[in-house]
Amino acid sequence: MTLAEVINEGLPRAAWSTIATRPAGPARLSLAYALLLAQMFLGFILAIVLVSTSQSFTDIFVPEFARAKSITYVRISSFSTFSSAVEAAIAAASRALDQPDVPLLLSSVKFAVNIVLDLLLISTFHVRTEDPTVEMQAGIQLTCNMAAALLSVLYFVFKNASCRQDPGITTENTYSKMAQTTRGEMLSSNLSSAPSTTFSVPESSPDFDPLEPDVDGTGDTSPSIDYAGYEGIDWNRLAGFSIRKHRKRARTGWVWEHGFDIENTDSGHRYWLCKLCHRKKTTITHMYDAASTSQANSHMEEVHHVCKGGPMLPQRKKQRTLLDMVDLDTHQPKDQALMNAFISSFDPLRFQHLLIRWVACDNIPFHKLESPYFRDLLAYANSAIVDSGSVPTHSTIRDWIVRSFNRHKGVVTELLRRSLSRINVSFDAWSSRKFMSLLGLTVHFLDDEGNFRTFLLGLPRIEGRHCGENLADRVSEILHEYGFEDRVGYFVTDNAESNDTCLEDLGRELGFKKQHRRLRCCGHIINLVARSILFGTDADAFEEDCQADKEIQDEVKLWRSKGPIGKLHNTVHWVERSGQRIERLHKLQSIENTALGLEDKTTYDVVMDNATRWNSSEAMMERAYTLRNALDSLVQAEVTEWSQYVARRTQNGAKPMPKKCRKKPTIVDDRMAAEDWSVIAEYLAILKPLKIATKRLEGRPREGRFGAIWEVLLTMEWLLKHLEEAKLQHERDEEPYLRIGCNLGWMKLDQYYALTEDSPAYLASLVLHPAFRWSTVESQWSDHPDWLTRGRTAVQELWEEYRSLPIEQDTIPEQPTVSRMTTDLDDFMASIRKLGAQPAPSVCSVRDEYAEWVASTDPGDCLVDDPIQYWLLRRRQYPRLSRMAIDLFSIPAMSSEPERIFSLAGQMVTAQRGRLKADLIGAAQCLSSWEKSGAIQISK
Question: Which spans does this entry mark as compositional bias, Polar residues (predicted)?
C-alpha cells in the first residue's frame, strides 16, 4: 500500500507542481502526456506484481477455509492499482492544465457504471441468472474504475487535441497567457524589500523586466507603479528596498494580510511593512524583521487593534487611580513629600493580614483574588497594592492561610492555658457535599480576664466509620495538640451512641467518669420531643422512609397517613413542583389582599419542610396557615376540575369509570378541610414553647445566661408543664393526632429529664446561681423528696472534688496602685500585707465554702442576672467555690456551636470548590472562628 501511495499521490503532486511552473504551452502539454504514460506504466507493472504474488499473500494472511474464495478476489482487486494510477495521473495533469471537467467526467462515469451494475447483478432487482458473490462485487468495482479511467484518458487526449487545432484559441497563446499570469502572481506573493527607487515601465519595450529598477541617475521621482499585491506602496519612500525576489515557502501568518513583503537590497534581509501605516503616510515607517512575526503581531494588536480573528473588541481603558487624579508634580518639594507619604503609607504585610482575614472570615473563593475586576478595584484605591505584587494567586493565598493558622495556634494555646475555668468541649460529625467526613470540635471557657470564649479548635477529617473509638482518637489528638488534656471540663454532645462510646474511651484515657462529664445537647432533646409530637412513636422509622427512594405516589400516601400535617406537607410540595401553581398562588393572595383593602401587602411563597428538622415543619405550618385561603382556592380548582372530568366520563355516575382514563391527581385526596386547619393551629400552639426554648438555649452564654447549663432544668420543667396542660386539653379529641402527639412528646421529655440526674452539673449550676439557690429546686421538687435527697448528695460530691484544691495565687489579684517613689518602709509594709493575705492552712482545711455560701443570704441576690460576674467578684471570699461555679457557668446548654461551624464550612465547601483538602478547610475555619470570637487579631 505504501508503494501504491507513492505512485498515486507522491509522483502526481510533484509532477503537478512541475507542470504548473512551466512557461511554454507545448512543453506543459508534453510533460502532462509524459506523466500520464509513466503513471499508467508504473500502475500496470505494480498490478502484475500483485497478481503474481496473490497466492503467497493468501497463504500467509487468509485462513485455510477461505483461501479458495479469497484468491480470486485478491487477483481481481490487484488491478485496481492500475486504474487508481490512471485516475491519479489524469487528476494531476488536468489540475495543472486548469481542466477541472476531466476529473468531473471520471467521477460521473464511475458513479453511473457502479449504479447500473449493482442494480443488475447484486440488488434484489438483479437479473436472476447469477447469485451475487464477493468476486462479483470486486469485478463490478474493477469494471467501474477501469471504465472511468479509460474514458477520462480518451476525453483528456481528445480535448487537448482539439485545442491544438482551434485557430482562435491556440495552445501556445493560452499557455503564454497563463505563464504571464503565473509570473505576476509569483511576483505578488514573493514580495521582498524594494528600494525607494523610481520604477518606469516603457510601453514600447517588449523586454521590460519588472524586477529591474530604472536607475538613470537623474533622481526622477515619478509615481510608483502598483504591482500585484503591492497596491498603494510608495517606493519613493523606501530607498534601498525592493520586492521580495525569492521565497522558499509560502507565507502562512495572518499578519501578512496587513503587510508588504519587502527586502533590503544591500543586506538581503526580509522585512514586514505595515500597509495601514504606509498608506496613511505616517512620519514613522513601521517595518519589522520578517524572520519572526511577533513584532508585527504586536504592532497590529496594539496600534490597529486587529488580531488573527479580525478586529479586536474595544479595550478597557487603563484604570485611573486616586493618585493619578491628584496629579502631583514630583519636581515640586511639597508634591514630592506628599507622594512619598502616600506611597509609604501602604504596608504590604498589614495588607496581607487584612486579606487573609477577609478571605477566611467571609469564605471568599481563592480564585476571586485573580479576577482582573478585583485587581482594578484595588489599583483604583491604591496603585501600590498591585504594583508591589501584594495580591496573591489562588495557590499563594492557600499558603498564607496555613501559615497564619500555624502562627496563631500558639496564641490560642496560651489563651487556653491561662483560662480561669476548665475547658468545656462540644463536638459533632459532619459530611460535606463531596462526602468528606469532618469532626467539628469547639471549646467553651472563661479567659484570664473573665470573658466568656467559645470558638472552633479543630476540624479534622474522620477516616473510616463514625464509631466511638474513631471519634475518641480525633478528639484526643486535638486535646493533646493544644495541651489542655489535664484541664478538660464537660462534654456537650447529642444523643448518638457513638458519643457514649467516645467519652468512655476518653474517660479511661484522661481519668474522669463518663456519666458525670457527658452532657446531652438540650436542643437535640427538644428536637426529639417535637418529632414525637408531630410524627408519633415511629419518628425515626418515618424519617428513614421519607429519605428512601420511592415513587411520588408512595411518598404522598406515607405522608397522608400522618393526618393533617401530612396532607399539608403534600399540598406544599405539590405547589412547589410547578412554577405555574406558584404564580397562581401569588395571584390568589393578591386578589385576597385587594378584597381586604391591603393592596400593598406582600405575597409569599410556601415554605418547604424537612422530615429531619421539626422547626422546618413548624415554619411550613406557620406560613401555610397564613396562606390557607389562597391554598384552599388553589386546591379546590383542581378538585373541581377532577369532579367535572369524572362526571363526563361516567355520565354523572350512571356508568362506571372507564379503565382507560386519566389518573386521579393526588392533591384531590389532600384537600385541607376546616377541621384540618384547626389541627394545624393547635400544632402551632403546642410547638411555640419549644421554639422559644430552642431560641433561648442556642445562644452563647456570655453573661452566664441565654444558653447556659443552669437554664436546662428550668426549661424542661416549663416544657413539661406545658405538655401536661396540652394533654389535658386534647385527651377527649375525636382525632387521635394531637392527643397521641402530646402524650408521646411528654414521655420523651420526661425520659431525658430523668437522664439529667446522671451528671450533677445541671443541678449544681442551678443551685449556685444566686438568684435561684436551693429554694427554687425545693419548690419545683416539692412532690419528689427523693429527688431532693439524691440531688443534695450529688452536688455535695461534686463540691468535694473542689474543696481540697489548692488556692491559686492569681485568685487574689493585687489592687492597682499609683506609681510613686517608694521607701524601704513601704516595701516592708507591702511584704507584711502579702503575708497577711495568705489564709492559714489549718483554717482552709476546716472551712466549708459551699456550706457557708448556702447558709448566707443576701437580699440583692435575687436581682443577679450575670452569675459569672457574681462569682468573679467573690473569688477572694470563696476561692474554691467560685472556681467550681465558674467551671459550671461556662458550660453551654446546647452543642449548637459545631452546627454553626458546619453551616459556615458548607458555604466554603461548595460544589465549585470540591478540591479543597480537610487541613485547609480546618485552617480557614479556625482562623475565622478565632478572629470573630476575639481570641486573635489577624490584622495585627
Answer: 191-203
